[in-house]
Design a protein that fits this description.
The chain has 643 residues and is α/β, with parallel strands linked by helices. Helix content is 35%, strand content 15%. The strands form 6 sheets. The protein has a 7-stranded mixed β-sheet, sandwiched between helices. Strand 21 (573-580) and strand 22 (583-588) form a beta hairpin. Helix 16 (429-441) packs across helix 21.
Length: 643
């Protein structure tokens, strides 16, 4: 009887992922999925009056009554549990947490029967320690204390421990009516060896394999911050090999889950989108995941780099939805972070942003326990969950005739100029800003696609009319050649990266490609605002456009076939339009796609709208104004902290 109770959860996935795109589906919609919380309110250590090394605030019976009331209200509102309070029942908790009277199968069955509440099953909470205790792996990275970064997630020992935990846990939880999704390690990242492991046989084999397969030696943890472009190419080699190995091992682990539980719904990992993200080819996630999960918080990035955080929920959601075609669960910030404490309207606004970009599920992360510290925010969490139970979501604006390229060959360089802890991540500022301009500012329709897939599947380029290329200083020669052919066949390529087509991941020159497409070099110039006169980007542009750029530069040695359509304040050439075969390239000498341009009126929205309009793309689509029913302030901007 019980397995049948879970089957609809997996079957429903077919209805919850994005439906067909294009004009025929313009009025269609999709049902909302589930709402989760990481449940910090269920831990006494998160209570405001908790004191370490003192008796807990509530005894066993009193705390059980409080928790059961919390779970009952959550279940009645459709708020389910994930993350730090997910199952299993033997999860490692401090001995001071009085859990035995409520954290039981019988109690959870009762709550599920009464309210429908469900709980994720985290399969990897004990994994790092298990592998260590069994001597299956060794310390890999002495510079980090987080277990999944301290140990190596692509080592044979980690994989062995992952399979052992799957074999132990899945048979125990597959038939329980309150099991939601199987989940894994939070924010997986892979670092080069740091410390004694650098001399280990596995580290030596890994270095040799990466060098042989990628044509470039991987980076060393001993290298200090540098702007040497060769160091960036070492990170490209490292990320491409280790990312593929990570996904291949996850594929095998998920296959083991499905062998034990054919009805399993699996969200293997939650991918970090705070202070950038790991620049892997996430299309590889698609063939083994039911759900793809991201944690694009707002305030940390927004406070650090104005403009960069406010559209993060939509950016990460659409990127992953478009690359994988899978249902996305977006973790929404509901706690103080980076010096900013969200108000209830923020949580609603960021949730709506993720949903309109393609999320189906949301998970509300509130580590400062608003149930006891900020009740209005907790009420907002319950309100969002309640609204999601009956909400209909708009279809994402996924027109494949406009492509925004996620170029891993460039992004996988990471940040060699920063500290080791964040060096593997890309900020992806240009990609993010272009997304924000196309989606939230211009209200257009487009798809993200990744360089590797565009290179191996010509049909994906063939269906496009416009391709936006925000970062392309490093590019695989296969994609570079494909873009030349595509432009010659009639496509319009918008190149906002002034350094586009510099080198390949193996450090070969792409000068011939640049000459064939852009046909100009770049030098310094005066001013940081570019002016494009009427008609500069096409006949439909009827007014001048002034666009802020990240650094003043001008084109030099411009090809005779190019037309200057934008100038700097000193009159030097800043934007060119060049016919290439039957197509056209629009290129910029300075980058207009930087996050600060979203913080002040900068003309980037006018620029994007003009180009999209000239290419016949839709603008001001209603999907980009969608808010979840019950949103208290539908007109609230994505970042209202300084309003």
């Amino acid at each position: 009887m019980m397995p049948a109770m879970r089957r609809p959860l997996r079957t429903a996935l077919a209805l919850l992922v994005a439906l067909p795109t294009g004009a025929a589906a313009a009025d269609a919609d999709r049902p909302a999925g589930a709402t989760f919380t990481w449940g910090h309110e269920l831990r006494q250590a998160k209570l405001p009056n908790f004191k370490k090394n003192r008796p807990v605030p509530y005894g066993r019976t009193a705390w059980a009554n409080i928790v059961n009331q919390l779970l009952t209200v959550a279940g009645q509102n459709g708020l389910w549990y994930s993350g730090s309070v997910a199952l299993p029942f033997d999860l490692p908790l401090p001995p001071y947490e009085p859990r035995w009277s409520w954290f039981t199968k019988a109690n959870y069955e009762r709550l599920n029967r009464q309210t429908g509440i469900r709980f994720d099953v985290h399969l990897e909470l004990r994994l790092a320690q298990l592998a260590k205790d069994k001597n299956w792996h060794q310390l890999w990275n002495t510079r980090n204390e987080i277990p999944a970064r301290k140990y190596l997630m692509i080592s044979p020992g980690w994989h062995r421990a992952a399979l052992a935990e799957i074999d132990r846990l899945v048979p125990k939880y597959r038939d329980l009516p309150y099991t939601a999704y199987y989940t894994g390690t939070d924010e997986p990242m892979i670092f080069p060896a740091a410390g004694p492991a650098e001399k280990s046989p596995f580290a030596k084999r890994l270095t040799a394999t990466i060098t042989a397969t990628q044509g470039m030696a991987p980076p060393s943890s001993r290298t200090g911050p540098t702007v040497n472009p060769l160091e960036g190419l070492r990170w490209v080699a490292f990320h491409r090999y280790t990312g593929a190995r990570f996904f291949n091992l996850r594929r095998k682990q998920v296959a083991r889950i499905r062998r034990l539980d054919p009805d399993a719904v699996v969200s293997p990992n939650d991918y970090a989108f705070i202070d950038g993200f790991i620049p892997w080819d996430y299309t590889q996630v698609a063939d083994y995941s039911d759900i793809v999960e991201v944690d694009p918080y707002v305030s940390y990035d927004e406070q650090k780099n104005p403009g960069r955080g406010r559209f993060n929920p939509g950016f990460a959601t659409k990127l992953m939805a478009d690359l994988t075609g899978k249902r996305v669960r977006t973790i929404v910030q509901a706690f103080e972070y980076g010096g900013y404490e969200p108000v209830p309207a923020d949580v609603w606004t960021w949730t709506s942003q993720a949903l309109r970009a393609g999320a189906t599920d949301v998970s509300l992360y509130a580590m400062d326990n608003p149930r006891f510290t900020n009740p209005p925010v907790y009420d907002a969490m319950l309100g969002i969950a309640s609204s999601m139970r009956s909400a209909r979501l708009p279809l994402p604006a996924n027109d494949p005739s406009t492509v925004l390229v996620y170029n891993t060959a460039s992004e996988a360089q990471g940040q060699p100029n920063r500290s080791f802890a964040v060096r593997p991540r890309t900020r992806a500022d240009q990609l993010y800003t272009t997304y924000a301009a196309l989606a939230e500012l211009a209200g257009s329709s487009f798809v993200f696609d990744v360089d590797t897939r565009l290179a191996r599947d010509p049909s994906r380029l063939a269906r496009a009319r416009t391709v936006w290329l925000p970062r392309a200083e490093v590019m695989d020669p296969q994609l570079a050649d494909a873009l030349v052919r595509w432009v010659q066949a009639g496509g319009t390529l918008v190149v906002t990266d002034p350094d586009a087509f510099t080198r390949t991941p193996r450090n070969a020159s792409l000068a011939a490609t640049r000459d064939g497409l852009v046909g100009a070099s770049v030098a310094a110039a005066g001013g940081a605002v570019v002016t494009i006169p009427p008609g500069g980007v096409g006949a439909s542009q009827t007014a001048p456009i002034s666009v802020a750029v990240s650094a003043a530069a001008q084109f030099t040695a411009v090809s005779p076939g190019a037309t200057i359509v934008g100038t700097n304040a000193d009159g030097s050439p800043a934007v060119l339009s060049r016919a290439v075969g039957a197509g056209r390239v629009v290129a910029f000498a300075s980058d207009p796609m930087f996050p600060a341009t979203l913080d002040t009126p900068s003309g980037v929205a006018d620029l994007v709208r003009a180009i999209q309009r000239e290419r016949g793309a839709p603008l001001d689509l209603p999907v980009w104004k969608y808010t979840l029913p019950g949103t208290p302030d539908p007109a609230r901007p994505a970042w209202a902290a300084r309003r």
